[in-house]
Amino acid sequence: MPEGPSILILKEEVQQFTGKTVIEVSGNAAIDLDRLRDKKILSFKTWGKHFLICFEDFTIKIHMLMFGTYRINEKKDTAPRLHLGFSSGEINFYTCSVKVLEGEINDYYDWSVDVLNENWDPKKAKRSLEKMPDQMICDAVLDQDIFSGVGNIIKNEVLYRCFIHPESLVGKIPHEKIDELIAECSIYSFEFLYWKKKFELKKHWLAYSKKECKRCNLPFIKKPTGKKNRRSFYCTNCQQLHI
Q1: Less crowded by CB within 10 Å, the N or C end of the chain?
Q2: Where in this chain does the record put each Formamidopyrimidine-DNA glycosylase catalytic domain (predicted)?
Q3: Ordered domains of the chain (ranges, CATH)
Q4: In sequence order, what are the beta bridge partners of 169?
Q5: Is the overall model pTM greater than 0.85, yes or no?
């Protein structure tokens, strides 16, 4: 599943179509495709893992799910979920969710919970965490209403950086560690973005998909954790379990 930084890269790559009129639309998305024809794209936005194509009185929300992809000014052999053609160029989305949001886009999204947004509010994230003391931190970090854009890679890397066991309970983690974790969710997301653009993201992974802790020279534990049942990679020696 693409994480927030990857969706932000998509936004940057399609800026050439801002202000352009859709002259061709097709695909197997379950929306009224004709509604998009001859409409001008006002802007592109992102909220976490959501890619937003904004028109005058509605927005197309694209969610890449687990295996979504896109192509700009080229096509894949398979039929697109949504094809948008312009006088010079095209955008094609595959294996994704496509929905229509009516009216003003700001009515749908709280930009202050997006870790890559200029309006990101870490104090709000802390208040939200304080309301869920009995939840495992591995689930809390993946909560898109608190850390929009954070996915499983970022979760693993941030918890490793902060020396926190993924099955720790939020309310048992020291306040200074919570502050550090909140900050790192945004810091690491921007580093993810930078490395992704340089095509070197994987070489910077310290925990995700790794077999050994480089700090302790001990094997990582790899198992699904929390109610979300997402894969965690962690060291039981240096990542403290707070319960």
Answers
A1: C
A2: 2-101
A3: 4-107 (3.20.190.10), 111-234 (1.10.8.50)
A4: 136
A5: yes
Please give the pLDDT value at position 3.
86
Residue 167 in this model has a pLDDT that exceeds 90 = yes
Residues whose CB falls within 8 Å of the CB of residue 97, separated by 6 or more in sequence, listed in order: 61, 62, 63, 64, 65, 68
Question: Any residues with CB less than 8 A from the CB of 191 and at least 6 apart, and which?
Answer: 204
Residue 102 burial by Cβ neighbours in a 10 Å radius (0-12, 13-18, 19+): exposed
pLDDT tops 80 at residue 1: no
Q: Which long-range contacts (CB under 8 A, 24 or more apart) does 202-209 make?
A: 205/153, 205/157, 206/157, 206/160, 206/161, 207/156, 207/157, 207/159, 207/160, 207/233, 207/234, 208/152, 208/153, 208/156, 208/157, 208/233, 209/233
